[in-house]
Amino acid sequence: MINRRHIRIKVMQTIYAMQQNSSDLMDSNEKFLMYSIENIRDLYLLMLSSLIEIQKQEENFLEVSSRKHLATAQERTPNKKFINNHVLQLLVNSNQLNEMIHQEKINHFEVNDHYIKNLLDEIKKSDIYKKYMINNRNTFEEDRELVSYIFTEIVAPSEKIYEFLEDTKLTWIDDIPLVNTAIQKELKQIKEDTVEYRVAKIYKDMEDKEFARQLFRKTMLNAKELSLAYYDKTKNWDIDRIAELDAILLNMSVCELLKFPSIPVKVTINEYLEIAKEYSTPKSSIFINGILDALVKEYKQEDKLNKVGRGLIE
Fold first, then answer.
1. CATH match for 1-38+201-314 among 1.10.10.10, 1.10.3720.10, 3.30.70.1400, 1.10.940.10
2. Dmax over Cα atoms in the chain, in whole Å?
3. N or C: which end of the chain has fewer CB within 10 A?
4. What is the number of alpha carbons within 13 Å of residue 126 lying toward its C-beta?
5. Which residues fall in a coiled-coil region (predicted)?
6. How many of the other CB atoms lie within 10 Å of CB of 168?
C-alpha cells in the first residue's frame, strides 16, 4: 500500500518533529516513525468499515421499517438489492477484514453512526443509486460499479469524514489520499469469483520497511556531514536562513545519493523535488534542484556515486 515517496514524507515529518521538539532521542523517534506508518492500516480499515456500516445501517433500517405497526406494502417487502450487493456482502462477510477491524478496535463509525446516516442519505439521492435500484438486472459488474462509485464520489471526498479523521488522528491527514486511492483500486479489481476480501499489506516488501528505518537513521546520524556537503553550493543563500524543511529534504536527498547504492540518482532527485513542491515554499524545488544538480556533477567527477547496477548514476 505505502510507496517510497510516502515513506520519505513520513521520515521528513519525523525529523521535522524532532527538530521542533529539540529531541535527540533516536530510538523513541524511530519508534514513532514506524508506528505512524503502521497506523496507516487503521485508517485503511476504518475507511473500508464505512462501506460495511453503510450496508448494515440500511439493512437495519429496512428491518425496523418492516416491523412497524402501520408498515406499508413496500416497507413489508422492501427492495433488498442494495443490501444484497455482491461487493458489499463480500466486505461484510470477509473473515480477515472483520477480524482485523475487531482486533484493532475500529468501531469509529459504529459509535458515530450519524456519519454513516449522512453518507447513506447522499447515496440515496444519487442518480446512479436510483437507476441501480429500479434496474431488474443483478450483475456483479453493476454491483461493483455502484460500490466503486459510492466510495470514490461520496465517501472519499466527504468533508465531514475528512474533519472526523483529522480530529481522530492528526497523523492521518497526509495518509488519506494514499489510503483512498488504494481502496479505490482494490474495489475496481474485485472479480466475481473472489471468495475473500484480502486486506492489503502496509509495505510492498520488507525492503521498503527497512528503507524507512535506514533513511531515518542514516540521515540523522550523518546530519552534520550531509549539511556540509552542500554548504558551499548555497550561492546567495544564508545557510542559517534556509527553510527548515528544505534543509531536511536536502539532507535526506544527499543521504540517498551517497548511502543508498540501489536507488537511481534521477529517482532521488525527482522524488525530493515533488515532495518540496507539495510541502515547502514555492521556490524550494528550484533551490533544491540547483543544489542537487551541482552536487551530482561534483560527485560524478570525484567518483563518489557508488551506485549498483546499470543506469543508476544517470
1. 1.10.940.10
2. 86
3. C
4. 18
5. none
6. 13
